[in-house]
Amino acid sequence: MALHFEKAEFASRVARLTEKMKEEKLDALLLFAQESMYWLTGYDTFGYCFFQTLIVKSDGTMALITRSADLRQAKHTSVLDDIHIWVDRVNADPTLDLKNLLIEMDLLGTRIGVEYDTHGMTGRVARLLDAQLTTFGQIVDASYLVSRLRLIKSPTEIAYVERAAALADDALDAAIRLTKPGADEADILAAMQGAVFSGGGDYPANEFIIGSAADALLCRYKAGRRKLDANDQLTLEWAGTYAHYHAAMMRTIVIGEPMQRHREIYNACRETIEAIETVLKPGYTFGDVFDMHARIMDERGLTRHRLNACGYSLGARFSPSWMEHQMFHVGNPQPIEPNMSLFVHMIIADSDTGTAMTLGQTYLTTADAPRALSRHPLDFIGL
């Protein structure tokens, strides 16, 4: 089997989950998030674009219902033995197959949690599921039960995150080698992704972000490439990915002579991220991290140019996003604990002057100060 973890680690995860289920008085849990299935069993697929769910009972019994195309995928990549297939056909309703399986598993009339907040659960599936289960038992939203357990990384997971971070550094090295006046964004992007693949890494859960000139102010991928001018700015956001574990980075590279505004907002980004390092540790919350970000940026008159979040938890994720649920935004009470992998980013888009500046890297939290996982310093990059 293509397992990335020892079976004992999967067993430990199941035990942690069932303990939480008992605390929540859940008799069963329906997992629709692919990252939840991967974390719990090793099951690795992009087949979640179709209906599938992993049933977990409070005694640790598990059963997967999926399509025929993923039968061998599940057998080869996971510890699962009990795999059921729903059949593709006109007007198929796999939620009926699911209900019948739940009856077979003696779950009629029980309290069942459902992962609703995931890209593996479409609106149509949610409506079909609710129609089948409304009178079946007590159905509750348990979208974040597994997500919160995944926040704390095991030693093997940390090793994968560290490997992902090394690949992210390799990608930045590749970008810097090619970035100069006249360079094509397409070549830079290809070199960055190629560095990750050549190092044994995976596709990221979302596209790398690349944009120059006015596009440097964007913080999402878009189609279209251009060549760099003699004086230009290039914003990059990317992640090294290994066994689906991500370590993200973000930089704005200035080509030619930097404007004074570049230096001003870089200094604000650097000051803020260094201040955040003082609260990125146990005893503080995700909300505290954002408050530090907002306070410094606002003091420097950058309120209109900053974002309403400044990072998030990372881990093993599947497309369309490498972002976890837990983000650094106002009021988030999530405590910071040791062995979390957290991406902190500073993003300033000054549309008044057309100036962009970003600075971001992934940290591993410890019992005290966080450890930056990148070998690159946070220095201004001008080429």
> And the CATH topology of the largest domain?
Creatine Amidinohydrolase
Number of distinct helices? 10
Instruction: Give me the oligomer status.
Output: single chain
What best-fitting shape do the alpha-carbon axes yield? elongated
The domain tally reads 2
- Major pleated sheet: 8 strands, mixed
What is the H/E string?
HEHEEHEHEHEHHHEEEHHEEEEE
- Residues in β-strands, percent: 15-25%
Give average pLDDT, whole number.
Answer: 97
Question: Looking at this structure, what is the CATH superfamily of the largest domain?
Answer: Creatinase/methionine aminopeptidase superfamily
- Contiguous uncertain segments of 5+ residues: none
Q: Briefly, what CATH class of the largest domain?
A: Alpha Beta
Radius of gyration over C-alpha positions, nearest whole angstrom: 22 Å
First and last CA, distance: 47 Å
CATH architecture level-2 label of the largest domain: Alpha-Beta Complex
What structural category characterises the helix and strand content?
Answer: alpha/beta
Please bin the fraction of helical residues. Answer: 25-40%
Protein name: Xaa-Pro dipeptidase
What does this protein structure show overall?
A hairpin with a 4-residue loop joins β11 and β12. α7 packs antiparallel against α8. The chain folds into 2 domains: 144 residues, Creatine Amidinohydrolase, Chain A, domain 1 (3-Layer(aba) Sandwich), CATH 3.40.350.10; 231 residues, Creatine Amidinohydrolase. The chain is of the alpha/beta class and 383 residues long. The strands form 2 sheets. Strands 7, 8, 9, 10, 11, 12, 13 and 14 form an 8-stranded mixed sheet that branches. The protein starts with 6 loop residues before the first helix and ends with a strand. The model has no long low-confidence stretch (mean pLDDT 97). 33% of the residues lie in helices and 20% in strands. Pfam families: Creatinase_N, Peptidase_M24. This is Xaa-Pro dipeptidase. It comes from Rhizobium sophoriradicis.
